[in-house]
Design a protein that fits this description.
Blueprint (H helix, E strand, L loop, with lengths): L2 E13 L14 E18 L5 E5 L5 E3 L5 H17 L4 E8 L10 H15 L3 H5 L1 H9 L14 E4 L10 E5 L6 E7 L9 H7 L6 H21 L2 H20 L10 H17 L4 E3 L6 E6 H12 L6 E5 L6 E3 L5
Parallel strand pairs: 3-5
Antiparallel strand pairs: 1-2, 1-12, 2-5, 2-6, 3-4, 6-7, 8-10, 8-11, 9-10
Helix pairs in contact: 1-2, 2-4, 6-7
Bound molecules: ligand DP6.
The site of ligand DP6 has 15 residues, from helix 2 and helix 5.
Length: 336
């Protein structure tokens, strides 16, 4: 195959990965849901040039080359090299990538991006078995340096096992995308890109006096999250989601140097969600990654009402409603 196109979803972590080993392995297990309105489409083809090229479509619809010197760029070009060596090939590639969500919305595209890139490379270099073996694929995706990307390999609800060796850290599907009609209504507060990349945060997490406590709490929280997903219990799930978000941000804020990802609007949305829950019994729960935007997790029946209410909050610029998506898969339509 000389040209391949794949599509991969982003995901929202209910239980978040924060803190890694010296070999970039996630120290704790994490659990997420894939997002059907936050997709990356990537086409990879062989080229006669003596170098690799990656281009990403910007918000004006034109392609821009991904700089090798950027954090994302160095990880992406390194991943091409890794897969090429695995295939024992010399061939160089041309890569083009498009996100379905606004590039300037401040939503992390690295999970869907690195998952799509790795999957398309495996197929173009003829490593079909590694693509089809989703456990193996998730390990290769994780090696790109984006742990969250490993959870985009499978559809629906996925757990990434943490650990201190390559062979023990991989993704496992807890339930597929049809299991539960949950929604993630993303409230866009700020479209700025991350102030401190996650890779730096994973390293400095150890400096927080609360990091060990967070790891200690994890086993119980992972267990109750798995159970809540299996039993479709939104209240129990929401409780774990919010506890985990606060625990991760407490570690971030107490690390050295401290990391403050929230904006005033972030807290404003949190307060609204709590008050809608208390006053109107609206089952909505907040989750916040390494950024200011708030992911509001709810059941499908409440998603439109929540999106409507969020649009009246002055700090919310826009909303994106997501349902569980299927995992990374090949598609017919090439980008070039
Ligand atoms: C806060 O190292 O996977 O999103 O490459 O930036 O996506 P990116 O980060 P990664 O760490 C993820 C950090 C997190 C929590 C999570 O998604 O588990």
């Amino acid at each position: 195959m000389s040209k391949v196109t794949v599509q991969a979803p982003a995901n929202i972590a209910f239980i978040k990965y924060w803190g890694n080993t010296d070999d970039n392995l996630p120290l704790n297990n994490s659990i997420s849901m894939t997002l059907d309105n936050c997709l990356t489409t990537t086409t990879v083809a062989f080229t006669d040039e003596s170098y690799d090229t990656i281009e990403i479509q910007n918000q004006h619809g034109t392609y821009e080359e991904l700089k090798r010197t950027s954090i994302k760029g160095s990880k992406a070009y390194e991943q091409i090299k890794r897969i090429r060596e695995l295939a024992g090939s010399e061939k160089r590639v041309m890569v083009k990538s498009v996100n379905s969500f606004p590039a300037n919305a401040g939503i992390a595209s690295s999970a869907s991006g690195f998952c799509a890139l790795t999957a398309a490379l495996l197929l173009v270099y003829g490593l079909k078995n590694q693509f089809e073996d989703k456990k193996e694929l998730s390990k290769l995706v994780r090696m790109s340096g984006s742990g969250s990307a490993a959870r985009s390999v499978m559809g629906g609800f996925v757990e990434l096992i943490g650990g201190d060796a390559h062979h023990v850290s991989y993704a496992v599907q807890l339930a597929d995308e049809k299991h539960w009609g949950l929604c993630d209504v993303i409230a866009i507060i700020s479209s700025d890109s991350k102030k401190t990349p996650s890779s730096e945060g994973h390293r400095s997490a150890h400096s927080s006096p609360y990091f060990e406590t967070r790891l200690h709490e994890m086993t119980k929280r992972i267990e109750s999250t798995r159970k809540a997903i299996e039993r479709k219990n939104i209240e129990k799930l929401g409780e774990s989601i919010e506890q985990d978000t606060i625990s991760m941000h407490a570690v971030m804020m107490t690390s050295n140097p401290p990391l403050y990802y929230w904006e005033p609007g972030t807290l404003d949305v949190i307060k609204h969600i709590i008050s809608w829950r208390e006053k109107d019994s609206l089952q909505a729960y907040f989750s916040i990654d390494a950024g200011a935007n708030v992911h509001v997790i709810c059941e499908k029946k409440d998603a439109q009402e929540i999106a409507k209410r969020l649009s009246t909050v002055s700090s919310v610029q826009s909303t994106i409603v997501n349902h569980p998506a299927k995992g990374v898969h090949e598609i017919e339509n090439h980008l070039f």
